[in-house]
Amino acid sequence: MSKMYKRRRTGSLLILLPGILLTIIFVIYPVIRTAILSFESWNGVANAPKHFVGISNYISVFTSPKFWLGMRNSLFFIIGGFVILMPASFLMALLVTSKVKGSGFFRTTFLIPVMLGTTAVGLMWTFMLNPQFGMVGKLAEIFGSETVPNILATPVQNTWAVVLVNEWMYAGYNMLIFAAGLVAIPEDIHDACRIDGCTGIKKLFYVTIPLCKNMFMVFSVTCITGCLKVFDIVWAMTRGGPMDSSTTPAILLYTEGFQFKLMGRSSAIAMILLILGLVISVVLNSTIFKPDENL
Questions:
Q1: Domain range spanning residue 251?
Q2: Cα–Cα distance measured from residue 29 to residue 10, given in angstroms and rounded to the nearest whole number
Q3: Across residues 220-232, what is the average pLDDT?
Q4: 180 located within any domain
Q5: Cα–Cα nearest to 114, from 157, 167, 75
Q6: Considering the domain boundaries, does residue 181 fall inside one?
Q7: Residue 184 within any structural domain of the chain
Q8: Which pTM was predicted?
Q9: pLDDT digits (tens, 9 = 90+) for 24-78
Q10: What residues have CB less than 8 Å from 123, skipping those under 6 apart?
Q11: Counted domains in the chain
């Protein structure tokens, strides 16, 4: 091994060292501590004793109706993500990457909801959906409706309302993901499609979408993991209520840990979400988005 190689390897390690240390301190160590705490009972007070309770925290979580209600609501978010958000974001990306006049205006407009911030968006839509003075109530009065339902106070409806607001907010962000894949398609491929007569819908399904496979993979992983841990938009609009009807596992994690001081049970929920997210990501990458061996 030459001195030049040793010097370069040492230099590379020194460059990577800050990133490795940050990852260990802020990612790996907290995950290990959370995993250990999930097998303990602790009220969150610094000097309070911790007692080993085995898997009782996991049993409490899996036998809790609130947890499965939260998982159901997370499933609603996942369904909304793939049925509404993914097609909408992809179509928006097609629009802003096309040579249509005014595409720059649409690009800016689509990104405005993301720039507003989750809390601002949640409060804005909460006021708009208010049956007494909100926009929805006023429109219902204009069209002659005598009773205006309180959507955010109605089980199931409140969850889907938050889901739709979430899709409205993050459509612009996911548009950027698909736009990056669209602009990366070589111009030679577009020219070949025009020569072969492959245009319009045929080009979209046989050329554009297959070449954006990696972007769909990125969207799928971020969508599923994000829906499993969704917290901010739900907390801003409903706080998981009424009667926990719109709660999510992340909200349950927060309330168990910081309201009821059940840090062990809260850590168990965190580990379940972490493992579930990792398993789903691995399954997606090894099945649906498995690399083509012929390439």
A1: 58-286
A2: 25
A3: 90
A4: yes
A5: 167
A6: yes
A7: yes
A8: 0.89
A9: 999 999 999 999 999 999 988 888 888 899 999 999 999 999 999 999 999 999 9
A10: 236, 237
A11: 1
